[in-house]
# Entry
Amino acid sequence: MRKIAVVYWSGTGNTEAMASAVLEGAKEKGAEAVLFTAPEFDASMVDDYDAIAFGCPSMGAEQLEETEFEPMFSACESALKGKKIALFGSYGWGDGEWMRTWEETCLSDGAVLACESVICNEAPDDEALAGCRALGAALAD
# Structure
């Protein structure tokens, strides 16, 4: 059974709803999946999981949330080489540049992106939630 961590930060509840759908998709595939907020997760935990889903909305000038999520994620980066991960998050403006930048960072770190990232504008609709469940399932494979 694969162990999966779903790690997220949410300010409005949109990314939290996405994280719950990722968790659901992983569990439906038989994975042992655990949900963490960004402050609950740190770099020492990366090796405890076969795969990790990271979720963060776009903030400010198309960037990761700077107070809790970005410091946690930056601390984890050196442990992501060869790690199967997936990314998700919501945005309220822009065109998803923050996700493209984040994907490039992860690939540069040597992480293995399990599937296409899932983004949605504002609250996730049925299509976005289905994409999040598929993302969780991809991590469980």
Q: What stands out?
A: The CA atoms of residues 26 and 140 lie 5 Å apart.
